[in-house]
Write the structure tokens for this entry.
Amino acid sequence: EADIYQTPRYLVIGTGKKITLECSQTMGHDKMYWYQQDPGMELHLIHYSYGVNSTEKGDLSSESTVSRIRTEHFPLTLESARPSHTSQYLCASRSGGSNQPQHFGDGTRLSIL
Amino acid sequence: AQTVTQSQPEMSVQEAETVTLSCTYDTSESDYYLFWYKQPPSRQMILVIRQEAYKQQNATENRFSVNFQKAAKSFSLKISDSQLGDAAMYFCAYRSGGGSQGNLIFGKGTKLSVKP
């Protein structure tokens, strides 16, 4: 099993709040990813990072931001949460080999009231 | 751009029987990787099986095997001797190989139910 952790697992919060979703991995992986997934639907890449101080936007436009100050840590922040941000957010990481799979965290289910 | 299509939103199988989940993809690349991921309800997404495009031999992992047809751009997953624990969403995914950045492109998923 991969060691990648997301907190919190569930979050219900009001509109306008600042939110940070945490993601940490202990495998030393240089590549990390954030996906957004609505219930029963496919995953959409919203951010990725290939190493410290590297961040890129994914295929799906998102109002969230990310940072990568340390290899093991890749937090996602919403400055002002809105109901449209309600979704599940999945974090993943992988090592650099071309054939290496992504390892996923348990996800954070976010509900904005 | 590459795309991944899973044409079966839902499938059902009887326990101990065999089921095949379909996946097709579109690409002009010759070097790539294909994956099947399993996502049980409210649980972590895990890798089921992977296939390198340059390998002709179909990948197998215990009860899970793939039928990789490169010319047809097809990558189906066969689950033999289905178990109740196999019930989950299954996602097919594509990743470019070579010098690409290697982001995964997912299909919409197939929800598999296993009947006791």
Notes: The mean pLDDT of chain B is 93. Chain B has no helices and twelve strands. Residues 8 and 110 of chain B are 6 Å apart (CA to CA).
